[in-house]
């Protein structure tokens, strides 16, 4: 297809691809009923859905989920909140501590982190892991705002080792991060748009070209021209399992434990700023055999930004992830699914495959566990790419049932890299 594609020809192609998508599906494993239509690439006018970045996983969807239960750390006046959750096997908690600006030093932050960890385990004997994030009180905006001053993850078995670490020997405790920024950098507003369908921001001819590429890729599978819309349809039925927005305290250890029990590997599309502040969770992912992908540094909507800003978002995220794992990043997913010719150009120049999905059960809409489980089952297909979010408790709780259903249907759940036939960064 050439840039001189006429408007009439483009309209004809768009109409044809829409009709094709409504009436065709990729072959399903034996025993699985006819699939729902695949998510066709939509134009830039596709409506956006606001999602609060700092209030995850509560989103304006089918229903509002109940707040996580809290622990009262009465002897810690700087405590902002302390929440905990379970995956049915282990419990994890997260304490958010706010330091007044005059006392906002690494030394004070570490002292409070020690106190918070001790109190969490004392208040909750069933707790397996405690996380602490210490923020400067001034300018605190929640998880989506300026980075913490200090973070730590403390398994119960390592509590003694953690509280014995002085500031001068902090590197010997590998689940502790100290923010090197003495002055918080300028904050980039994150995108609050929910990934629903791929959205192309460009000309009508460009949209027609993207739809043709998407539907062709769904027929033959695999990566084409730096794009991955659909995985390879292998002789042994397989689908990719992917999680966006990683990593998050509380959820990371619960999700990784659930995947380990199910003996499933997945792809985590990480936000660079999250990975930087919680590097030990990213290391846990890689050590467990999972794949790490790029989801931009600040989780910003890239379309409409200057190309050098787009380059910086992808480069900064790449550098953080490579610095943590020592491995190259191969896959990139644009926040909100919104992309443009410029986005694709920057991703290709960095050796990244822009990766979309075939199956989105809309877990961020909090539809309820039964509804979510049904959507995951009804969308399952050979060569499919499942989109979930790493910090939605409903997704975590239905995952064992979905894995069991996939196994019953003979579909292996694996990483995007394995499904695409490309070397992943888990090697």
Radius of gyration based on Cα positions? 22 Å
Termini Cα gap: 37 Å
Number of domains: 2
Mean pLDDT: 86
Oligomer: single chain
- Secondary-structure-based class equals alpha/beta
User: Quick one: biggest sheet?
Assistant: 5 strands, mixed
Helix fraction by DSSP (H/I, runs of at least 4): 25-40%
CATH topology of the largest domain: TIM Barrel
In total, the number of strands is: 16
Percent of residues in β-strands: 15-25%
Please name the CATH architecture of the largest domain: Alpha-Beta Barrel
- Per CATH, the class of the largest domain reads Alpha Beta
Q: Could you give the order of strands across the largest sheet?
A: 2-3-4-5-6
Number of helices: 12
**What is the H level of CATH, i.e. the homologous superfamily of the largest domain?**
Glycoside hydrolase/deacetylase
Order of helices and strands: HEEEHEEHEEHEEHEHHEHEEHEHEHEH
**Global outline:** globular
Q: Which spans have pLDDT < 50 for at least 5 consecutive residues?
A: 17-35, 50-60
């Amino acid at each position: 297809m050439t840039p001189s594609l006429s408007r009439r020809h483009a309209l004809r192609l768009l109409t044809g691809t829409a009709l094709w998508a409504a009436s065709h599906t990729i072959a399903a494993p034996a025993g699985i009923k006819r699939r729902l239509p695949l998510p066709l690439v939509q134009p830039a006018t596709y409506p956006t859905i606001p999602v609060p970045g700092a209030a995850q996983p509560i989103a304006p969807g089918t229903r509002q989920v109940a707040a996580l239960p809290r622990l009262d750390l009465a002897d810690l006046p700087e405590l902002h909140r302390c929440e905990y959750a379970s995956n049915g096997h282990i419990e994890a908690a997260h304490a958010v501590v706010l330091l007044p600006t005059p006392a906002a030093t690494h030394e004070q932050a570490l002292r409070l982190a020690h106190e918070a960890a001790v109190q969490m385990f004392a208040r909750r004997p069933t707790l397996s892991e405690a996380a602490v994030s210490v923020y400067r009180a001034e300018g605190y905006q929640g998880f989506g705002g300026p980075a913490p001053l200090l973070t730590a993850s403390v398994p119960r078995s390592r509590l003694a080792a953690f509280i014995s670490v002085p500031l001068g020997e902090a590197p010997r405790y590998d689940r502790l991060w100290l923010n090197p920024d003495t002055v918080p950098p300028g904050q980039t507003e994150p995108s609050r748009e929910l990934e629903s369908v791929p959205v192309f921001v460009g000309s009508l001819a460009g949209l027609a070209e993207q739809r043709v590429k998407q539907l062709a890729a769904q027929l033959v599978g695999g990566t084409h021209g730096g794009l991955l819309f659909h995985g390879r349809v292998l002789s042994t039925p397989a689908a990719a399992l992917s999680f966006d927005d990683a990593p998050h305290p509380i959820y990371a250890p619960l999700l990784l434990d659930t995947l380990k029990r199910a003996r499933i590997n997945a792809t985590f599309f990480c936000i660079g700023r999250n990975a930087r502040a919680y590097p030990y969770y990213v290391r846990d992912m890689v050590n467990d055999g999972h794949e790490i992908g790029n989801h931009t540094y600040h989780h910003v909507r890239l379309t409409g930004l200057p190309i050098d800003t787009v380059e910086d978002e992808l480069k900064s995220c790449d550098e953080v992830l490579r610095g943590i794992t020592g491995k190259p990043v191969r896959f990139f997913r644009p926040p909100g699914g919104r992309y443009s010719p410029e986005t694709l150009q920057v991703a290709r120049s960095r050796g990244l495959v822009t990766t979309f999905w075939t199956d989105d059960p809309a877990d961020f809409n909090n539809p309820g566990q039964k509804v979510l489980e049904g959507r995951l089952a009804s969308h399952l297909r050979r060569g499919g790419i499942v989109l979930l979010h790493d910090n939605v408790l409903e997704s975590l709780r239905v995952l064992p049932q979905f894995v069991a259903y996939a196994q019953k249907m003979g579909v292996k759940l694996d990483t995007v890299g394995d499904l695409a036939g490309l070397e992943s960064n888990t090697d």
